[in-house]
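A sample follows:
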Amino acid sequence: MKDEHRYIREWIRYHLTIGLEKFYIFDHMSSPPISTVVEDYVREGYAEVFYFSDSWEQDSNANVLPMASRRHASPQVLGWNTCAAPMGGSLTCATE
């Protein structure tokens, strides 16, 4: 997501009421970072925020995907792959 500050809290509240328990938020260079709006959800364990940019070199320090895999991936593909790989077995809902 990018610059969705206005809607993210409502979106999380709604999905908590229908039974979702954890949110993995991939912040694509929001300004300010999306964590400034959801820090209470992060603190309470309902959300984790991951950051990535359009710069593969800059993101390589985050160890999100191996550089060879990322060479042709868009930021959106990077976010989906990062979410699906380690969480795929327990992921019950994914949305943009």
The chain has one domain: 5-87. The first strand starts at residue 23 and ends at 28. The beta strands are 23-28, 47-52.
